[in-house]
Amino acid sequence: MTQDSIFIGGGGEGYGVAETLLLKYGNRHGLIAGATGTGKTITMQIMAEEFSRAGVPVFLTDIKGDVSGMAMPGTPRDSFQRRADTIGLDALHYEAMPVTFWDLFGEFGHPVRTTVADMGPLLLSRILELTDAQEGVINVAFRLADEEGWPILDLDDLRAMLQFLSDNQREMSARYGNVTTASIGAIQRRLLVLENQGATQFFGEPALDIRDLMRPDPPRGTAGSTCCTPSG
After folding, report:
1. Residue among 63, 65, 40, 57 nearest 97 (CA)
2. In whole angstroms, what is the distance from residue 73 CA to residue 70 CA?
3. How many structural domains are present in the chain?
4. Are residues 81 and 121 in the same domain?
5. Same structural domain for residues 131 and 69?
6. Is the peptide bond before 206 cis (omega within 30 degrees of 0)?
7. Is residue 225 within 8 Å of 60, Cβ to Cβ?
8. Cα(49)–Cα(161) distance, rounded to whole angstroms?
């Protein structure tokens, strides 16, 4: 590998000849395709490792945990060395990569969280599968929170807003449009279902900061790879 390229693979007709990707083309769209067992996952892992060595942050959505082994150094084997010779990999490294596991439930890795306010009324309504009338109530709650400076960070905050709308239904209806107790009750029931599915751990602070994905790894002097593996 040179400073301006990363190792991708090799073999096939170009036996023993390494195939590389110029780093300046690393921001292009790409597709790794092939039948089962042809090396798609390994190719993805190699690219993640090589990008990390080059100082490029990597984010992988690894549902099955196939590439989680990058977090630990490998064990040297003769078969690995023979394969490295076949694909033209000059230096076979056995080292741990800087990996951070992102966990939606915050049980086995770095928690992935957001606030209800950051989620927004539209996306939240879609998640709750609300009707148009119920979505209207959610929009009223968010508008009122913005006007009054009341933060909606977690589900308890949203429930408090809904309770306020219920307690002041006549005034809220005159101010923003029809706000019915039936719609409020339906939203509260949907929130209970969402909470039972583990949403309490997802909504709240600190919210995910996209800059966390580009945190450098000081010992290596390069950016860390990031792997998202859901728990449970």
Report:
1. 57
2. 7
3. 2
4. no
5. no
6. yes
7. yes
8. 47
Classify residue 221 by its DSSP letter.
T
Instruction: Give the residues across from 217 on adjacent strands.
Output: 222
**Does residue 110 lie within any of the structural domains?**
no
Find the range with the poorest average confidence among 81-95, 112-126, 136-150: 81-95
Whether the upstream peptide bond of residue 73 has omega within 30° of 0, thus cis, is no
Nearest to 87 by CA among 6, 7, 3, 2: 7
Query: In this structure, what DSSP letter does residue 105 have?
Result: T
- The amino acid occupying position 123 is L
CB atoms within 10 A of CB 145: 20
Q: What does the DSSP 8-state code read for residue 39?
A: S
What phi-psi label fits residue 43: left (phi over 0), alpha (psi between -120 and 50 degrees) or beta? alpha
Digit-coded pLDDT (tens) for 50-75: 888 888 888 888 878 888 888 888 88
What is the per-residue pLDDT across 187-199, written as a single tens digit (0 to 9) for each? 999 999 999 988 8
Asked if the structure places residue 231 within a domain, the reply is no
Same-domain check for residues 94 and 144: no
Question: What value, to the nearest 5°, has the Cα angle with vertex 44 and ends 100 and 225?
Answer: 20
8 Å CB contact between 208 and 59: no
Q: Is residue 232 part of a domain?
A: no
Written as one letter, the residue type at 99 is: V
Say yes or no: 89 and 171 in one domain: no
Q: For 1-39, how does the pLDDT look when each residue is reduced to its tens digit (9 = 90+)?
A: 446 888 887 766 656 678 888 988 888 888 888 898 888
